[in-house]
Amino acid sequence: MSNTLILLVILGLGVLGFFAGRARAMATAEGDRRNLHSLPNYYGANTALNAVVPAAVALAVWLIVQPFIINNSVSDMIDQGAIAEGSSLGLIMSDVRRVAEGLDVAVAQGAMTEQDASDMQTGFTDVRERLAEVGVALGSGVSAETLLAAQRYREMAWTGNWLKTFAVIAIAVGGLVLTWRVITRDYRARNVVEKGVLTVLILAASIAILTTVGIVLSLIFNTYEFFKLYPAADFFFGLNWSPSFSGRGQSSQLGILPLLWGTLYISFIALVVAVPIGLFAAIYLSEYASKSVRAVAKPMLEVLAGIPTIVYGLFALLTVGPLLVDVFGEGGMLGVNWMSGGTAVMTAGLVMGMMLIPFVSSLSDDIINAVPQAMRDGSLGLGATHSETVRQVIIPAALPGIVGAILLAASRAIGETMIVVLGAGAAARLSLNPFDAMTTVTAKIVSQLTGDSDFSSPVALVAFALGISLFVVTLGLNVFALYIVRKYREQYE
Amino acid sequence: MSDATTDMSGGKSAPAAHGSLLSESPLMKKRNAAEARFKMYGLLAIVIGLVFLIFLVVSILRNGLPAFTQTVVNVEFTLTQEQFDEAESKMLKTAAYTEYFVNDVTQTLQQRGLDVDFDGDTIERVMGKVGGDLRTFYRENPDQIGQPVEFELSAASRVDRYLQGQLTRDMVVDGRFLEVADLDLVDALAEAGIIGSAFDWNFITGTDTGVDNPGGAGIGASVIGSFFMMMVVLLLSLPIGVAASIYLEEFAPKNRWTDLIEVNISNLAAVPSIVFGILGLAVFIQFAHLPQSAPLVGGLVLTLMTLPTIVISTRASLKSVPPSIRDAALGVGASKMQSVFHHVLPLAMPGILTGTIIGLAQALGETAPLLLIGMVGYVAREYPDGLVSGLLDPNSAMPAQIYTWAARSDEAFFEKAWGGIIILMIFLLTMNIIAIILRRKFERRW
């Protein structure tokens, strides 16, 4: 039976269980619900949950475990010595699976009988041709051993599927009957159901941890693979970035330093734009602006934060880049020739700075507003002007929070992808000229992993090593920033 | 205090001479000037920010609006029965139709005193395969033969750009797509008022084309792709996010495990989106063998990204429900679970929905993770046919489609990319306005 059908049967049993459990509860209570411990629906829900949940869990576990078991026992059939040069057990096993799936398709389409499929021998039939008839293309001819293994594979899968169907439905029926039998008028059905719901809530909350674990594991495993193929010291201290696809990427030079330089340079320019503008905007909005100005200007600035980064990317590539070339490029307004193409550190940095303005301004705004009014009053009372108060009292008091905000903005800038993919260029280089095209860690992660890359060459795997570096840096900045902000907040609360 | 009194009595440091309160001392002047400057800096910063915003919006609109119009040629054309029979009997049937069309247009132009020399190839370069279109039309509608029929033919994208002034005669290189001489015909048509512009519905409803037909590219299929992704995000992240927030806000004991969860959620909110893309690639595609470029995978990745946003806003709105509601429910005998699900959750619902819509809007514009799960290399040529195909078949999504167009070398696609951004922004604006209305209408101050 197909998995969908099994699932439907389980759910059907659940519905049945609900009504059966409810009916039994009402029967034990002599038809008066006031005699029951819980509301009647809780008895029904309890029965239904006990029928559905264990069976569904069993089904899920079975679906994960069965392929492993079959794989192991079938790969034992393949003679280790028979594996050809340049091939591997994994490749042969994927051949076996393909043939087995092909046979399934052929049987399903009626091109073969079940008997044919399991008795077929390479000596008598051209398996490849017969499978091609039903639209399953095989890369190479099928050896006798592969076909035998495939037939064994199908056989085991067939037995496994029937066992699975029986086991899962038996568990569902068992859960239903057992729960149904224990129902009495004093049975605490509500407590049991609520415990179940609480478990679901805990599981949902744990998904956050699962995601982090998933991120860390997927990065670490692939990075480990990468460092088996490429020395870690060369990656962290190499000054050259030139991936080469010849010889399965063995001749590439994959040093992270040029990318890191590009990332930091662009982030630096972005912060040079965003921090003064954002900070002054925050000071003006919280200290000087009238209520009506604030009501208009603050949301307008925050619109900048809600615009998707792809829009900024396109804006950098098609508007800001050409504009900068008109000014700084050859024959431009300044008469200098510093810039040869629209994509440059300056382009990406300026646009990223625009994007970060609301980030800096709204965080700083909150922090400046959190400085107690008594400090302002004290300073003004001593005769300081408003700006002197801001510079000498408020900013020093808010400084840890502002530093935190700037660090958060820096972490955003380092992790930003679309603006640099479109606006910064593709060439990795160590240069001081802000009008040169440079590239960043994020842009290279995209370019190494886009398209049909194969995950066994260092050229693709390097993206994971870049990813883990990025993850560690941004996480470190965030944790540090939150630590500073939190420590500061404690002073006034 | 004692220091101050000794100072006062000693009178060692003589106070500076006080001038009149009505006239500013030089120092005061300086300080007031600094004050004015400081205030100016603040105002300037706000103005710069707003100028950036206006510059961005203007550049989106200026570059994107042309994508919604299309140059069309309106020609009245009559085909007689004899012409039809004659054309159908020829070897090169479409060429015959093209010839009739050329004669017709030449006549029309001559009637208005314009004389241009052109042939079927010119027509094909300027308006596409007219002969074939005419033939299909008359074969499908034989009753229209002998009557004047108004044809609206869409012009090639290069003609489009020529008429908008983006392409000048000097820039045209003779080639397969357009020759300089063809522009004489375009000018004549423009003078005769035959050529005009119409709203390009194809851009909204159409699908992406290959690299050599920028004029026909539309964003429709990728809107559907985005729609399916948002469905996945909504169906997964709303229940999971709400369940997680209820646990953390209402039930969680203060222990290491819940601390760990809280730290994780706040950190995940700050992880760069590209890292989520790597996670999606490694877990959903490499490990679980889900299909590449599928909206389902995109939806799963975006769900993980959106969860922290939804959890944070849901917890805020659960927190804003006053404890008296919970106490009242508990007081009349509800269990803790019942008080939460029957009373607190419904009251917090408007806030939760607002947060969800804002989270969805964020997810809708997110591009970087989609690049890694293969949504960019794919040319979305057709609509999915059904729910399962919509989830599992390769498709594009709005931001991925915009990126694809921006990355193509043909400049004609840039206009499409800007146009796509306008559509994306309309969706985002609508979602945010709905969120604001929800908040205004249902938000309760306790």
Report on the structure:
With 493 residues, chain A is an all-alpha fold. In chain A, helix 1 runs antiparallel to helix 2 and helix 2 packs parallel to helix 7. Chain B has two domains: 131 residues, no CATH class; 223 residues, MetI-like (MetI-like fold), CATH 1.10.3720.10. Chain B has a three-stranded antiparallel sheet. Chain B is mostly helical. The radius of gyration of chain B is 33 Å and the shape is extended. At the A-B interface, helix 7, helix 9, helix 10, helix 11 and helix 12 of A face helix 2, helix 10, helix 11, helix 12 and helix 13 of B.
Overview in brief:
The complex is a heterodimer of chains A (493) and B (446). By secondary structure, chain A is mainly alpha-helical. Chain A is built from 17 helices and two strands.
CATH topology of the largest domain in chain A: MetI-like fold
CATH superfamily of the largest domain in chain B: MetI-like
Residue stretches of chain B low in confidence (pLDDT < 50, at least 5 long) are: 1-12
Query: How would you sum up the global shape of chain B?
Result: extended
- Number of E strands of chain B: 3
What percentage of amino acids of chain A are in beta strands? Answer: under 5%
Output the keywords:
heterodimer; A: mainly alpha; 2 strands; B: 446 residues; mainly alpha; MetI-like fold; three-stranded antiparallel β-sheet; 19 helices; extended
In terms of topology, how is this protein built?
The complex is a heterodimer of chains A (493) and B (446).
Chain A: H1 3-28, H2 40-77, H3 89-109, H4 114-119, H5 127-133, H6 144-182, H7 189-229, H8 232-237, E1 241-242, E2 253-254, H9 257-288, H10 291-306, H11 309-328, H12 345-370, H13 373-381, H14 386-415, H15 418-423, H16 441-449, H17 458-489
Antiparallel strand pairs in A: 1-2
Chain B: H1 2-10, H2 26-64, E1 69-78, H3 81-89, H4 93-111, H5 120-127, H6 130-140, E2 148-154, H7 157-163, H8 182-191, E3 195-199, H9 201-205, H10 220-251, H11 256-268, H12 273-287, H13 295-319, H14 323-331, H15 336-365, H16 368-372, H17 387-392, H18 398-407, H19 412-442
Antiparallel strand pairs in B: 1-2, 1-3
